[in-house]
Amino acid sequence: MSKVAFDEMAGIGEACRPGYKHVNDWLRDTSTEQLQRYHREAEVLFRRIGITFAVYGDAAAEERLIPFDIVPRIITQSEWQRLAKGLEQRVKALNAFLADVYGPGEIVKAGVVPADLVYRNPYFRPEVAGFMPPRGIFIPISGIDIVRVDSETFYVLEDNARTPSGVSYMLENREVMIRLLPDLCLDHRIAPVENYPDELLATLRSIAPPSAPMNPTVALLTPGPYNSAYYEHSFLADRLGVDLVEGSDLFVRDNIVYMRTTEGPRRVDVLYRRLDDDFIDPLVFRPDSVLGVPGLVSAYRAGNIALANAVGTGVADDKAIYTYMPEIVRFYFGEEPILKNVPTWRCREPDALAYVLDHLSELVVKEVSGSGGYGMLVGPHADRATIEAFRAKLIAKPDEFIAQPTLALSTCPTFVESGVAPRHVDLRPFVLTGSDKVRIVPGGLTRVALKEGSLVVNSSQGGGTKDTWIVADPA
């Protein structure tokens, strides 16, 4: 696999790739000073909006702006259509997998996925085994992380099936671009993203229990203002036109969930919960949780409320389960996966472990339950001490790790202190799965590694974001 990064604007040896002509012309005609002014204006706008995130354990900077890059990322409509088709197939397979492992377990009985990876997985919830959500949808909201390595090849890097975040940045990035660069936006026929809240609300209403009224009541459950993604919670509740609630705002009576209001209790039919399983119900999971709602799981099992996402979906986005996604797609659909996984070694397998130990300096090693770019080794960028520390971890607990080649992730032109330079990017499209249909707003959140040579795009580790434009193919 080539280590030469594919540049999404310039390609390799090309003057300018399809779709990027207007952006290329704009960059050529815009001075560094003007780009810097746009950058400062964007930062002012984001500060006025109040779009921040928290970094846990960082007392010096508890609330930060995610850096925003004003150079848009371009994906043509034909490229997007291929991606969207693959995303729909993958999310349907994830839902089928969850329905199976919490039900008959046919994929385990067939020996396709090892039983211990499912039933001993820390995110598998036996408390809801044998239970099907009201409309059979486990993952109404998913974020699938995609990386690109050349003009044709996209890989899935990670599946986010619990509480995927970042959609508020996708929406705000677009609004800021339209305000700062209206002429550049008009030069492109950009597929809209501003209808995402409408699509999300339609998806949530579609999964309401059969006993719910024609216009079911939806609420968004947040851990509260100290959560790192609280801005997004309040932003989405406002855009959806639903109540933003904390656990103390809800109570359960006779297996029905009610919201406290100034006009008295109001039944809740769908709860978009941005709270991990461990904290949602102290009667079932962590008894010390003050964030959840006592009795919520009982009401859920009684079929009186829909949860987005369902309890126990974390077993589907575990990095060990990720390695079996090609087999999962084939098992349920008899199809080849449209979107491929990154080639992966399962360190639980002796031959794979031996290879990984021999090539640690060349590989990326990840904890199967890790997230946010933490708990991983990027071999080519690690010093000897770090590599040896990871070697000891692998030998001690090989089941807890996977390894992948160091991909030459695609780059996009990005405005940095030195001017415009290529930086590595990934893409998180958001897939909405209702009982009626699958909805995918064209685009998603592009994350960019702002440090030269870095492959880590996570905002908690210095990454930024870009607006993602899905544009018509050039004539």
Automatic annotation (TrEMBL):
Pfam families: CP_ATPgrasp_2. This is Circularly permuted type 2 ATP-grasp protein. Residues 72-449 form the Circularly permuted ATP-grasp type domain. Coiled coil: none annotated.
